[in-house]
Amino acid sequence: MSLPVYQQIMIKSSTPEEVTALLDPEINLRHPVVLNIKSVNLEEQKEIIKLIESFFSTKNLSFKFPYPVYILSDHDPLISKLIILKNEKNLPPFFKKRDGKVNIKEAHLSEKNNLLQQDVKNNDAASGQSEIETYSDFHRIIFNQDSERKFYQQILNGLLKRK
Amino acid sequence: MDKKKKPTGPRIQDNRGFEEFIQGQHDKVPFLPKTPLNARKNENGFDHLTFLVNDSNRLMKLKLFFSDKLPFSLKFDQGKTISELQKAEIEALKNGIFEISDKAGSPFRKSLSEVFNTFFHGTKS
Questions:
Q1: Coil, helix or strand at residue A32
Q2: Rounded mean pLDDT of chain B?
Q3: Which residues in B lie closer than 8 A to residue A155 (C-beta atoms)?
Q4: Does A4 touch chain B (CB under 8 A)?
Q5: Which of B49, B61, B62, B65 should we substitute to test contact with A (largest number of A Cβ atoms within 10 Å)?
Q6: Does residue B119 have a pLDDT over 70?
Q7: Contacts from A83-89 at CB under 8 Å and sequence distance 24+?
Q8: Distance (Å) from the C-alpha of residue B117 to the closest C-alpha of chain A?
């Protein structure tokens, strides 16, 4: 029984066979994963990012739930939908804990968490991802329109006061 | 008077053969060093437990979000309706502003005429 702390995987080759051998459909089921690809050159890093992205999309897996998958790369985060970070310091501190033995109480809680992890995964988080994006897009539009409405309301109030 | 009694007579005989073992123990470092009772507590404390509880809460929220909230919000999506209502309200506000500004003697017209008058007056002279 281990704690859900970061598990770092070093990727040293950009060949599809070697990259997919390191990836598993249940890679982020029990703990967050950090895929470190900094040891290869920039071109190869791009290839690896593409391979990882296609792995998650073809298998309809979520790279955010139940635990996130981070990629440590020198590339710009905008080149992919995956979460790309420059270095380990940028990793969220929530999962930065020292791994160690767990006592009975903690083991029970961990078992309960295992069920929840499976539950989140079974909820098809990958398909929910696109729905979340459309939902958030609408909220962004609503926010912008509301700012515009407030601006016009302010002008109208000013004009009505002067009247 | 309470004096420390040295073992004498039959007591010495009982301890015979174990003297080294009994006496030597005080000075020597014990074979298994004693760990303080709260050593593990100091090492981890409730850190692991708190972390697991927080993670459990996080997972529970995710589960509720994916199983209840997301399907509900998709089934009864309000985004489009709210957006259309906002657009209509923005149009109404724009019309209101235009109506007030377009009236003769309105502050907007006054300011505009002042700008024009000063500009053209300046060029004529």
A1: coil
A2: 77
A3: 97
A4: yes
A5: B62
A6: yes
A7: A84/A49, A88/A34
A8: 23
Calculate the dihedral angle through the C-alpha atoms of B78, B84, B85, B86, rounding to the nearest 10 degrees: 100
Do the Cβ atoms of A82 and A45 come closer than 8 Å? no
What is the predicted pLDDT for the residue at B39? 53
A160 shares contact with chain B (CB less than 8 Å):
yes
B22 to chain A nearest CA, in Å? 37
A153 touches chain B (CB under 8 A): yes
CB count within 10 Å of CB A109 equals: 20
Above 70 in pLDDT, residue B65? yes
Q: Give yes or no for residue B56 having a pLDDT over 80.
A: yes
Look at A152 and B93 and tell me if their CB atoms are within 8 Å: yes
Contacts of residues A70-77 at CB distance under 8 Å and 24 or more positions apart, as own/partner, are A70/A32, A70/A33, A70/A34, A70/A35, A71/A34, A71/A35, A71/A37, A72/A34, A72/A35, A72/A36, A72/A37, A72/A38, A73/A37, A73/A38, A73/A45, A73/A49, A74/A38, A74/A42, A74/A45, A75/A42, A75/A45, A75/A46, A75/A49
Residue A35 is classified by DSSP as E
Contact check, Cβ <8 Å, B62/A141? no
ipTM surpasses cut 0.95: no
Mean pLDDT value of segment B57-69: 90
CB-based contact (8 Å) between B69 and chain A? Answer: no
What the block records as the tokens of A129 is 């991802």
Whether the ω angle into residue A92 lies within 30 degrees of 0, i.e. cis, is no
